[in-house]
Specification:
Layout (H helix, E strand, L loop, with lengths): L1 E4 L8 E4 L9 H14 L1 E5 L5 H9 L21 E5 L4 E4 L2 E10 L11 E8 L7 E5 H6 L3 H7 L3 E4 L17 E5 L4 H9 L6 E4 L1 E3 L6 E3 L6 E4 L4 H15 L5 E4 L6 E5 L3 E9 L4 E5 L10 E2 L3
Parallel strand pairs: 2-3
Antiparallel strand pairs: 1-2, 3-16, 4-18, 5-6, 5-10, 6-17, 7-16, 7-18, 8-15, 8-17, 9-11, 9-14, 11-19, 12-13
Protein name: TauD/TfdA family dioxygenase
EC number: 1.14.11.-
GO molecular function: dioxygenase activity
Length: about 300
Amino acid sequence: MDVTPLDPALSFGRMVIGLRAADILDPHIVQQLRNLWIECGLIVFRAGQCDPDFQVDLSRCFGELQVHAVAEMVHPDRDELFVAKGGGGALFEVNGDLLGGYIPWHSDQVFTAATNHGGILRVAHQPEAGGNTGFVDQIEAYDALSVDLKERVEGLEVVYRLKAGTIPNFTFLPRQHIKLVRPHPFQASIDAKIESGGYPPVVHPLVFAQPGTGRKVLNLSPMFADSILGLDAAESDGLLQTLAFHITDEVRAYDHEWQPGDLVLWDNWRMLHCARGIPDGMYREVHRTSIAGDYALGRLLDA
């Protein structure tokens, strides 16, 4: 193995080159990888083994796996894998461009009380163009806040709701102008579950300290954010828009250009990510594991 920085300009992220199945049988290597994950938040595995079995086995080095909350997106043969398809799925107009497979800035499963700790992504089918994945470190984003904003956000909590119709989940994405052109084939069944109370609203802290290091995290997912608990609508909306504009600043983003054989691991408790999308008419398929865990700070709103 060889470990190198992803980008010298960024404080997060490492690339591990040449990892194979035999390596993750060594507990010392596994512990080194776990430490690297917590310290750097994002690991790109390149020029090593890359297949569904290895993806699942490598994911288990970082914790138990869980089945994704949206059952319609689970792989039909391997429930450890969540499947996202671009091309034939939802189609969006984003800042004037038609894009399939587009998912704006978010934390995975933040609309549940116990968000998963991380995930590993693998591209099962690479499109001819596009398909990059963006990452932002929420520790670095917190450090870049002004002193006044740091004081203002301390102790606040954000309400998250999975809303029917897709677009209502994109309220706090001030850098993107998004229109739904074609819904996802599963959207009707997901909407029915939402409307029947299958995804109740939850609350997460706006700031928390990373377990083990104490570093503070600006814990905001612009996608799925609904309001700040206890603030009136105008103040809540204004603060969420300000923070969302800050946290999605591309100056602090890493944009991953996929190469054949790449696997990407991220810490979902501190990294935002987005799927940049692909041109209309192309096809992309990605498989993702969900590494279980609970930082024990989320709760149901009613509770």
